[in-house]
Amino acid sequence: MSLTDTLSAIVGAGYVSTDPDVLAGRSVDHTGRYRGRASMLVRPGSAAEVAAVLRACRDAGAYVTVQGGRTSLVAGTVPEHDDVLLSTERLRDIGDVDVVERRITAGAGATLAEVQRAAAAAGLVFGVDLAARDSATVGGMASTNAGGLRTVRYGDMGEQVLGITVALPDGTLVHRHSEVRKDNTGYDLASLFVGAEGTLGVITELDLRLHPAPASRVTAVCGFADLDALIEAGREFRDLDTIAALELIDARAAALTAEHAGVRAPAEGAWYLLVELAGDTDQTERLATALDGARLVGEPAVGVDAAAQQRLWQVREALAEVLGVYGPPLKFDVSLPLSAISAFADEATALVAQHASDAIPVLFGHVGEGNLHLNLVRCALDADRERELYAAMMALIARHGGNVSSEHGVGTRKRDYLQMSRSAADIAAMRAVKAAFDPTGFLNPAVLFG
User: Fold this and answer.
1) What is the maximum span of the chain, computed from C-alpha positions, in angstroms?
2) For residue range 281-293, what is the model confidence (pLDDT) as tens digits?
3) Which of 144, 222, 279, 340 could form a disulfide with 242 if both were Cys (CB 3.0 to 4.6 A apart)?
4) Mean pLDDT within 202-208
5) Cα–Cα nearest to 180, from 103, 106, 108, 125
6) How far apart are CA 75 and CA 65, in angstroms?
């Protein structure tokens, strides 16, 4: 029996495809810059089916690439070996919200927006938010330990995971679900798979932490003449116990949203800081106190009611719409010490001018964690010149004491630079873990190590 027949028997013939057009559409990354090759698409409908598919592919010697919402920005879901594409999109079940324990169970293929809506309907909030909320899946977010817009308050995806079901490469199912918040009995298996980028197993279900919804919010967009002044203010805000969001946006980003999305920055300056405070009481006075002494350009734009806050958030949210206006942008997701951000921004701009003079560098991100997104808009380079620029940028990040990846993972795009952020002993230990779970190396073979 062929592998196609075997997988069809497991999941149903209607959920297996070898159509070249379907596979081509599934073998390109979210940015459109990177393409791969796949032999088959299979869409299991349960954890047991995922496990059976993995067992069958392992026995047949077929490589498997796992796909969720395919929003990876580091080619993390791009196959390289005529792989079988295993999609989690049918694992969409969302359980009832446990309002007492503040938790919810969701299938790996459920989107972030679906989990957010379920939490909101119960008067709670989910702690991670991304611009790609309508397509990013919680399984993929856990696999990359995604951060996002609310990390400064709630932490990254790993801090939201209370339990997990994982299909291991040998077809074993691991169910790590506990009714208690504190469980110190043996290895923390759930955290092992968070951030592993699908190299150790396929996450099929998650127990997720929910949080009380703040009674009051206040949002502001503040303008600064220079980045050092913004970083200085950012340090003050990130240590407030009511901080809810802290986002950096440069003037080039604001110009793009104004021109192509009709969303103009509501303040003056070369750099913008979007800050939001949230708590059980009115935060307006606390915002004013925190801004006292900040080196602002003009007055900040402040939103107290929901409609005004949404308008202020548009200058950040609209970026997702406009970054691709000149074609697929070249993306860099990095984390840096706050003290290094200003120098990095200057040197990165000079580096881009040297390698791609027509490109527009756009810098924004979650400044509270030093997690920045540098996007090169209108960047059209041949493969060799792009690799040269990418390598130079990775080296620049390392020189400033940063990590080559912050919240998007390593994927396939950054695997050659892993040693810039992890020691040889670190990498050897990670390879040993990979070999223990997946001795033949068939699961997500292009990711992380390559």
Assistant:
1) 73
2) 999 999 999 999 8
3) 279
4) 97
5) 103
6) 11
Judged on CB neighbours under 10 Å (0-12, 13-18, 19+), 243 is buried
Q: Which two tokens stand for residue 216?
A: 């009051």
Output the CA–CA distances (angstroms, integers) from residue 440 to 200, 241, 443, in the order listed.
Answer: 12, 47, 8
3-state secondary structure of 64: strand
Strand partners, 377: 360
Q: Where does residue 48 rank: exposed (0-12), middle (13-18), buried (19+ CB within 10 A)?
A: middle
Look-up: residue for tokens 């709670």? 124
For residues 409 and 210, give the distance between their C-alpha atoms in angstroms, rounded to a whole number: 24
Q: How many residues does the chain have?
A: 450
Distance between CA atoms of residues 145 and 327, nearest Å = 28
From the list 221, 154, 220, the residue with the least C-alpha distance to 369 is 154
- Full DSSP string of 70-116: ---SSSTT--SSSEEEEE-TT---B---BTTTTEEEEETTSBHHHHH
Distance of CA 327 to the CA centre of its chain: 21
DSSP 402: -
Q: Quickly tell me which residue has 């801004």 as its tokens.
A: 291
Give the separation between CA 23 and CA 49, rounded to whole angstroms.
Answer: 21
What does the alpha-carbon distance between residue 426 and residue 423 come to, in Å, rounded to a whole number? Answer: 5
Contact 102, 210 (CB under 8 A): yes
Task: Tell me which residue has tokens 């992890």.
Answer: 422
Give the span between the Cα atoms of 205 and 182, in whole angstroms: 20
Amino acid at 153: R
Question: What pLDDT is stored for residue 73 in this prediction?
Answer: 66
pLDDT tens-digit profile of 54-99? 999 999 999 999 998 777 766 678 888 899 999 999 999 999 999 9
Mean pLDDT value across residues 328-333: 87
Is the distance from CB of 248 to CB of 315 less than 8 angstroms? Answer: no
Compute CA distances 6 → 3, 12, 55, 286, whole Å: 5, 10, 11, 62
59/410 Cα distance (integer angstroms)? 28
**Which residues have a Cβ under 8 Å from the Cβ of 353 and sit 6 or more positions away?**
none
Contact 99, 124 (CB under 8 A): yes
Task: Let me know: does 406 contact 335? Beta carbons within 8 Å.
Answer: yes
Cα first-last separation, the chain? 30
Q: Are 234 and 367 in contact (CB under 8 A)?
A: yes
> Which is nearest to 44 in space by CA: 57, 60, 28?
57
